[in-house]
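BUG: 3D viewer hangs when loading the predicted structure for this chain

Environment: internal workstation, default settings.
Expected: structure renders.
Actual: progress bar stalls at 90%.

Input used:
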Amino acid sequence: MSFTLNQLALLLIMLAVGWLLGLIMSGRGKYRRLWRDEQIAHHAAIKERDARVEAANARIAELERQSGPIGPGTATAVGGAVHGRDDLSRINGISQTQEVALNEAGYHRYGQIAALNDEQEATLEARLGLKPGTITQEDWRGQATELERSHKPGLFSRLTGSA
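Structure tokens produced before the viewer hung:
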């Protein structure tokens, strides 16, 4: 049996094509199994995450049922009642963040603000990032004295007429 050069070339081409197809087909099942295993692991992780989220939401709902209603200003009022602090943000010119900074600096009562001297004013203005003279210009000491003496309602209450 003798082969011509054309037949040998075709035979080699067919061998190469068969070899390539064999290489391609041999790993297909292996990668499909790996992909399926990865999918199963992913679905299990999602179920576990959803279960944790559901448990956390149930715990949050339980805690919310146990706690009382919380409205704006409740935390400040409770903190002031428990720790003997006045609501310094009622002074015109003091924001909530500045009130926190004042509390951290040790100023909790209107009387402490009313008793500030010039040196303490300058220190507070620097600590709060205010321009020099802001405390005097906005009359924090006078407002604090009035609030301490009469427990005058805040600006919002004065504007709206609510108690």
